[in-house]
Amino acid sequence: MHGASTWPMSIPDPRTRPEIGRPALGRPRLPDAATGALMAVAAMSTVQLGLALSVPLIDDLGALGTVALRLAWAGVLLLVLVRPRPRDFGGRDLWACTVLGVVSGCLMVFFMLAVARLPLGTASALEFLGPLGVSLYGSGGGRRRWTAPAAVGVVLLTEPWHAGIDPIGLAFALAAAACWAAYILLTQHVGDRVTGLSGLAVSMPVAGLVALLVAAPTGLGRATWQSALIMLGLAALGAVLPFSLEFLALRRLTTSAFGTLMSLEPAIALLMGLVVLDQIPGAIPAAGVVLVVLAGVGATRTGARTAPPEPARPADPLPEPLPGSHVRVAG
Fold first, then answer.
1. Nearest by Cα to 68 from 53, 57, 52, 78
2. 21 in a domain, yes or no?
3. What's the rounded Cα separation, in Å, for the pair 228 and 235?
């Protein structure tokens, strides 16, 4: 074609479309795995601090009454602070949040019932079978090599061979382990599908209701206004903060890496006992601390999640022509 043709059109500023011409770098990564690991460690630390501060109340309220008030207050706080809206949830998301709440409540209740019949170290070692199973059978085969030193470290830390096993306590501890594994998987699922902390703001009141139903016949009759207000503060420290941090951590870590990192919790408890209570660990628990710390570092270095591919965007419409703007193209 010879000659020239003209038509009105505007010339888009290339600075407004920075993605054009940018080379593809593969699938983008979610925020650094180190951020997720720090959140997980902070969650475990606040849980242990909350448990230590709750010890005086266990004599007054009982173990079930203490955990019930803590979870109930946590549910109220999250509802007030987050204020989830129906449009935050789609399809089966609300059902998944409800199931997560039931699992979270059962996890806390079963563990407290296990501790009532077993030494704390034995119950902790048995409960860790849940995260250990997630590490073994979850995604990310490269992280599984850190599961073995984590498991050995937890056994050395807790020394379960020092006491016998009560069969009912064993059943409660294994039930808590199963709930912990389900909690990890459900928390990541809900965190990926529901914006912000809205999913947690729905699941935590459900967990509080479950714990209240279990504790009502035995533990709540001795509650006073003073103990209830104290539990309000402990709910913020020992439930709202750690559950929120775990929720956010699982958006940055694979379930395998997160499950392995959970092995750090007995080590954190031991170190808090050393610093706060002057409890000096023996050589075997100290070796366990070294193993779980190494496993936690290894899981962190290889535990980042990759972001799912973004949905294709529709093509942008041609911009409206500016008055008097013409482009001449030689034909």
1. 57
2. no
3. 10
Q: Is 23 inside any structural domain?
A: no
Kindly state the tokens that stand for 66.
Answer: 């203490």
Q: Name the domain count of the chain.
A: 1
Within 10 angstroms of residue 14's Cβ, the number of other Cβ atoms is 9
Tokens of 203: 């699941």
Supply the pTM of this predicted model. Answer: 0.70
Domain that holds residue 177: 30-304
Residue 279 per-residue DSSP state: -
Q: What does the alpha-carbon distance between residue 203 and residue 210 come to, in Å, rounded to a whole number?
A: 11
92-107: buried (b, 16+ CB within 10 Å) or exposed (e) per residue? ebbebbebbbbbbbbb
pLDDT in 10s for each residue of the chain, 331 residues: 444 444 444 444 444 444 433 444 444 444 467 788 889 889 988 887 887 777 777 777 888 888 899 999 999 999 999 988 887 787 788 899 999 999 999 998 998 888 777 766 667 777 877 887 777 665 555 556 777 787 787 777 667 676 656 788 888 988 998 998 999 889 888 888 887 788 889 999 999 999 999 888 776 777 788 888 889 999 998 889 998 998 888 888 877 778 777 777 777 776 776 776 566 767 887 787 777 767 766 655 554 555 544 433 434 444 555 555 444 444 4
What are the residues whose beta carbons fall under 8 Å from the beta carbon of 70, sequence distance 6 or more? 50, 54, 231, 234, 235, 238, 239
Q: What's the CA gap between 172 and 178, in Å, rounded?
A: 10
- Residue 6 in any domain: the answer is no
Q: Which residue has the tokens 């709202």?
A: 240
Kindly report the length of the chain: 331
Q: Is 140 left (phi over 0), alpha (psi -120 to 50) or beta?
A: left
